[in-house]
Amino acid sequence: MHRTSLRRLEVFVAAVEARSFQAAAERLGISQASVSKQIRALEEQMGKVLFARKRGATGNLTNDGGTTFELAKELIEKAEQIAGGALGDIVTPGRRRIALASHPFLGWAIARPLAGYAADNPDTYLSVRAMDYEQLVANYAQQRVDVGIFLAPSHTPELPSTHLWTEPVGLYASAAHPLSALDEVRSSDLLKFGFIPAHSDRLFQELVDRSLAQIGIKDYPVALESEHPALTIEALRLGLGYTGSFPRVVAGEGIQESDVKRLPIQVSGFEVRLCVQDALRYDPKIQRLIDFITRHCAPGDDIGRMI
Asked: Would you say 65 and 42 are in contact if contact means Cβ atoms under 8 Å apart?
């Protein structure tokens, strides 16, 4: 059984109600070519012809098209009710919903700017979800995500993406840890102590291992493994080992310099990348959001000096 995305059904319904692909494109804020592409993809998935096409217009609905139209409208209405109920608020008619996913560790980078964006753009309803790389790949393939922000190396074969910014990374230890007393930390110093990995998705751990390998640490002892950030922070405070993190995450967690110090050793940052559904690349509202993210979510020049 084929999985048909809700987005394709929304485009199909808009084309029927607007009675032309061009009018549907204007209504949705996307290109006419995107409307045509979405509807052809829907027909191919279903194995049915939905329109008896005429030049310059959608034409009449076929019998299959009429049935699909009624079912699609019902499904879209129920989906909006479910989404609204989950958020405690039904989406106001006329507002544009944009589904955005980001890596959990990027929350401190995007939280305040996106809240401001939502306040300044009442015509747009942002639905933001935290997803690791594997979750993003799956949801992107099923077209449940319009825009994704994630951590990855420059080559991501599963997701067509572009570079946004490089997020600085630091190594941290308790202020009372022996490493924090050193004026200069070398890889040989780090290998004497255990590393506390901030467990996340597979790709994130690969990025951590790559950064450590660049400073000469390939096989490191592990002090503690936990998927609970609170436990990782407490283990760090108690001096069980050292860990790697983003300065913005450390600052956002409210960790004081008297508790935790950034170690004097340089490690490479992680690349933050952006993926957008093909059909939405030229959508004006999507472009406006991406421009805003590019300008306001990247780290400032002083971020590398934080804690």
From this structure: no
> What is the spatial distance between Cα 166 and Cα 211, in angstroms, rounded to a whole number?
13
Within 8 A by CB and 6+ apart from 103, the residues are 130, 131, 132, 133, 136, 149, 150, 151, 200, 204
Among 74-78, 85-89, 251-255, the range of highest mean pLDDT:
74-78
Q: What are the distances in angstroms from CA 153 to CA 12, 137, 258, 272?
A: 36, 15, 34, 8
At 3, list the tokens: 């999985």
Tokens representing residue 168 in the block? 């600085």
> Of the candidates 138, 139, 164, which has an alpha carbon nearest to the alpha carbon of residue 151?
164
Contact 133/150 with Cβ under 8 angstroms? yes
pLDDT band of 307, cuts 50, 70, 90: very low
Closest CA relative to residue 259, chosen from 190, 174, 201: 174
Instruction: Give residue-wise pLDDT tens across range 243-280.
Output: 988 888 777 666 666 788 999 999 999 999 999 998 88
Domains of the chain: 6-87 (1.10.10.10), 96-166+271-305 (3.40.190.10), 169-268 (3.40.190.290)
**H-state helical runs in the chain:** 6-18, 21-28, 32-46, 63-87, 107-120, 133-141, 187-190, 202-214, 229-237, 247-252, 284-296
